[in-house]
Amino acid sequence: MNLRREYFYATPAAVKEALVEHHVELVEYQENAPAEEFEASKDLRETGQLVGAR
Q: To pair with 31 at 20 to 30 A between CA atoms, which of 10, 18, 19, 49?
């Protein structure tokens, strides 16, 4: 069981683009925030240990 469930995948740039497109006012936005759980899941995906995820 994957305890680090990511229900969708999007890059920070894609998220920012969608927010701007929908006229969401951005007070603060960081594209390089710490993401330990995301990085752990990404490593599992890349090594084939996480089945059924992108």
A: 49
Give the list of residues 6+ apart from residue 29 with CB closer than 8 angstroms, or none.
16, 19
Token match 């229900």: residue?
A: 7
- pLDDT tens figures, 1-54: 566 666 777 888 898 899 999 999 888 888 777 778 878 888 888 888 766 544
- The radius of gyration computed from the CA coordinates of the chain, to the nearest angstrom, equals 14
Pair of tokens at residue 39: 């990085």
DSSP 32: S
